[in-house]
Amino acid sequence: MKFLFLALLYCMVLSPAAAYDPLDPNGNITIKWDIMSWTPDGYVATVTMNNFQMYRHIGTPGWSLGWSWAKKEVIWTMVGAQATEQGDCSKFKGNVPHCCKRNPTVVDLLPGVPYNQQYSNCCKGGVLASWGQDPTASVSAFQVSVGVAGTSNKTVKLPKNFTLLGPGPGYTCGPAKIVPSTVFLTADRRRKTQALMTWNVTCTYSQFLASKNPTCCVSFSSFYNDSIIPCPSCACGCQNKQNCIMSDSKILHRAGINTPRKDNQPLLQCTHHMCPIRVHWHVKLNYKDYWRVKIAITNFNYRMNHTLWTLVAQHPNLNNVTQVFSFDYKPLVPYQSVNDTGMFYGMKFYNDLLMEAGPLGNVQSEVLMQKDKNTFTLKQGWGFPRRVYFNGQECLLPPPDTYPYLPNTAYKHSLAVSKMAAYVLLLLLCAW
């Protein structure tokens, strides 16, 4: 019986349910296929990718989407995207397909391609903003002409085994499911048309699949305590510590050091925590009706600039944010009865780019929050966040017993009384 319980627990931990994010319970990437017309040997479809994740985006070098054909389909042409490999098309004479692979992989086109290769919401290098930060930039689409396929709703076979890299691992895609056909409005919004057939694929993210170690950590400090609580040692793993470099190293001046690698391997500044990103939360001031926090994000990776970065924090007083000074801010309310989570992100053209490690590799802001006198306290680490996410990755916090503590006023008071008593006793002895 004990063995059965442990086996069940093991399966629960490693199951797709591990992708559930309590701060974004409905977050996913939905891929929608709309067949717009039939062709003599197949169909023309519009494929639309919607990022419904509130604070997790897809950055450079962008997404790549793969699947397996159910039969022997080929891709005749594509607009707005391209297959990474053509495959063996030797059996075709004259008109050669764009891709003949049984399991194609498709990527977005780069900005600036000729107009006749563009499609609506394409050509962004695979970058997808998060839904919470910019819904208009959280969509990517392309058109694909499929041949050697069915030519009606009854003969078309849905692709299977979908995979999504964004740009690394972490996403798990479910099977394609036929859904009611998508309805479209014409440009004058006076007529509705609809797809001939539609199916959806839903992909969810799991940090366990993306990386075995955290990719960021959090440090704390406060005005009422001289201690600075650093990130835990080896918070992001120390396997690559021999490859890190000191910030003043001559290696940094070599050409190509800051060039990203195809395997996305980071080049980190040597630190005790070995994290690419550190978030520092400083309890700065305590007013009568308000209190103030300073947040600083530091990049220790010499090969990565972070565009569209997001920072999510969970703290009970985020329901009373009065002002955020140099970040944009949006409350996240995954559960209508609880408002304790907020998303911070950079202001457009000001600090929306977090530069690589170095003198410019940090961004910072201050947050002013109004006190709820029924709950506000600085005791027992209340002033520090419960969870912190950077770019959708949960950061490792210091152990709770190390948080900056309030001065022990009772101890100081008793010490002062003892000193006064000793002074009085000394006076009495001298008088005697």
Automatic annotation (TrEMBL):
Coiled-coil segments: none
Superkingdom of origin organism: Eukaryota
Residues in the signal sequence: 1-19
COBRA C-terminal domain segment(s): 215-404
Location of the protein in the cell: Cell membrane
GO cellular component, one term: plasma membrane
Keywords: Glycoprotein, GPI-anchor, Lipoprotein, Membrane, Signal
Protein's membrane topology: Lipid-anchor; GPI-anchor
A Pfam entry, by short name: COB_C
InterPro entries assigned: COB_C (IPR056900), COBRA_pln (IPR006918)
GO aspect biological process, one term: plant-type cell wall cellulose biosynthetic process
Record-stated family: Belongs to the COBRA family.
Stated name of the protein: COBRA-like protein
